[in-house]
Amino acid sequence: MSRRHLLKAGGAIGALGAVTAVGGVAGMAPAWAWSTRRSVIGGDLGTIPPENVWDPEADAVVHRLFREEGITRIDEMNALLRPWKVNGQALPAGLPADLVAFIEGARQNPSWQSSAKLADSLEFYKARGLYTGLLYGMGSGIMSCAIPDEARAVYHSKGGEDMKDRVSKTAKLGYDIGTPNAFAPDGQMIVTCIKTRLAHSAV
Q: Can you tell me the distance from the alpha carbon of 38 to that of 16, in angstroms, rounded to the nearest whole number?
């Protein structure tokens, strides 16, 4: 079994959780929260419940696109961005200035990135990839559907009811991060992360 198929299998189990969340009542999932002390760069923001965690930079850009550009123009942007897949690949012409600025800023590797630790993580993937893929697929698939409001939003969004397609797209995150060049110019992980942020903001 390939890692891609393993991730799809774990995601499919999570998709079942989405159907359950959609069919139930709001708040059926128990509330939980976590400390930001070691998960947010720049300081301790206290304890944040998951329903209040957003992406203000991406949200602001996407909100303006919907408000001022319109659906037809957004479809054109999606078509322009579809061939953009590699980290070091130049952005296509014809995108709005604020979208270009967001993407160019988001694609820069942070100063605290450690090439040595990334290399070590690749060795870990080589040695324990099967187990990591299983835990990632099961955990992320289920957890992505554990918050009722978010599960409903994705389910009712365009294409969200196609669980096979949804799981396949979600699995790309897990697949890309396990590649040797994930964050290198010829890798795809950075592009995948940026497209995921924009898609989540749109939903």
A: 31
